[in-house]
Design a protein that fits this description.
Layout lengths: L6 H11 L6 H13 L2 H17 L1 E2 L6 E2 L5 H4 L4 E8 L2 H9 L5 E5 L17 H9 L5 E5 L4 H14 L5 E4 L15 H9 L5
Parallel strand pairs: 3-4, 3-5, 5-6
Antiparallel strand pairs: 1-2
Amino acid sequence: MSFTETGSLADLIERLQRLPSVGRKTAQRLAFYLLKAPASEAQELAEAILEVRRRIKPCGQCNLLTDDDPCRYCADPGRDDSVLCVVEEGHDLATIERTSHFRGRYHVLGGSLSPLDGIGPDELHLGQLESRVREGAIREVIVATNPTVEGEATAAYLARMLKPLGVSVTRIAAGIPVGGDIEYVDEVTMSRALEGRREL
């Protein structure tokens, strides 16, 4: 720690480091930026953080964090009620929406199964998902969890839970990214790419 990083400055840097993908140097740069910025800018940032904490809540239908309940995706009458896409987090939903290829409904789990981290079925919104499927309007559930060990375990759990309810449970394809070189692809990704092959 340098001689300037004491007291409240050191505390701010330590707190900024807790943010995802923010290391020590980035935390230092952010802290010094806030010190040099007009006091009004720091005040506006603090107020924006407090306001989002006050106003944002999970959508009562899909669990997406939103200002409005229901969220804009659940409130949209033009979406297909028969297809439900299950994602781990809200930012996954945003990624799918950017493709403009999916017009069904969503369900946000709030994470993935990870027993080592203390995240089991009770910590995710699985009961709510099961209730939505039991209502009968849904014909297909697309499982769009991440291609990680936890994401795959979650996908397998969802398939076991939902298939007996008479719905089609599908998994998003995974494989080599567009623009990628096969030479640099790991074995798991290559295996998934081969499994997900389609006719040209």
